[in-house]
Design brief:
Elements lengths: L1 H32 L12 H19 L6 H36 L15 H16 L2 H15 L8 H43 L5 H37 L1 H8 L2
Helix pairs in contact: 1-2, 1-3, 3-4, 3-6, 3-7, 4-7, 5-7, 6-7
């Protein structure tokens, strides 16, 4: 019994500094996990998110310790940085959701699939789930951990960052996300435009024909074919944009902060 007690005391004494660093790391990781794709989705239960944050903290602590900061110094700065890092990645996911909303408005596939937890068109859930599935298959979870590790070189622990600079980078990231969303949805927008032009020409040539009865099935069929053909390329383009942020955050942050 004496040997077991001594072993426990030795383990606790050695784990003391690690526990302090782990608590500081958990502040950033826990706030970031709530926004990261796959880990922070609404469909993931809160307990699973908390468990993922704890496991990520345990995995990252040996690579980052010692931090040489106290919990009191890092409390608010680390939480702000964690939210910022998570939002930068979540905005890329929102770009895919926005592209799906634009595509749904240009096609007739909004009610093909059942609704999910988030208020998105059916194509939105298909795009998001497909993109995350492809990303996880290609090691997205590993790149997310690397992204959090690299963040300590860009934004050191417990150091305040100018709020106007963070706001500027988030705004610029949102602008780029909108550009990406419009680019991803462009095939569906062009297809919807061609459909409306063709429908208008047929209606002008044959006013007595009920073009809606013919055009609605044609639009649904064309949208399904376009979705099947364009989805792999669109999801890969989106995944490349996400990987660029995760693998080179320093270059992305510098370009956004200019």
């Amino acid at each position: 019994m004496t040997e077991i007690t001594a072993l426990i005391q030795s383990a606790l004494s050695e784990a003391g500094p690690w526990a302090k660093d782990a608590s500081v790391i958990f502040l950033r990781v826990g706030c970031a996990v709530g926004f990261l794709p796959a880990f922070g989705d609404q469909s993931v239960p809160m307990r699973i998110r908390l468990g993922a944050a704890v496991l990520l903290t345990i995995a990252m602590t040996p690579a980052l310790a010692p931090l040489n900061v106290t919990l009191a110094q890092a409390w608010i700065p680390e939480m702000v940085i964690g939210v910022f890092l998570g939002l930068m990645v979540r905005i890329i996911v929102l770009a895919l959701m926005t592209a799906a909303s634009i595509a749904a408005n240009a096609s007739s596939l909004s009610q093909v699939f059942p609704t999910q937890s988030e208020p998105l068109p059916a194509i939105g859930h298909l795009f998001v789930l497909g993109g995350l599935a492809i990303g996880l298959q290609q090691g997205l979870h590993v790149r997310l951990v690397e992204y959090l590790l690299i963040s300590y070189k860009i934004l050191p622990a417990a150091q305040w960052t100018q709020s106007n600079l963070l706001a500027k980078m988030i705004t610029a990231q949102g602008t780029r996300a909108l550009e990406l969303a419009f680019m991803l949805a462009m095939p569906f927008v062009i297809g919807g435009l061609l459909y409306n032009l063709a429908l208008g020409a047929i209606n002008r040539a044959m006013p007595q024909l009920m073009v809606t009865l013919i055009g609605a099935p044609a639009l649904s069929l064309g949208s399904l074919i376009l979705l099947a053909l364009a989805s792999p390329l669109l999801l890969q383009v989106w995944l490349d944009a996400l990987n660029h942020l995760l693998m080179q955050p320093n270059a992305v942050f510098e370009s956004l902060g200019r």
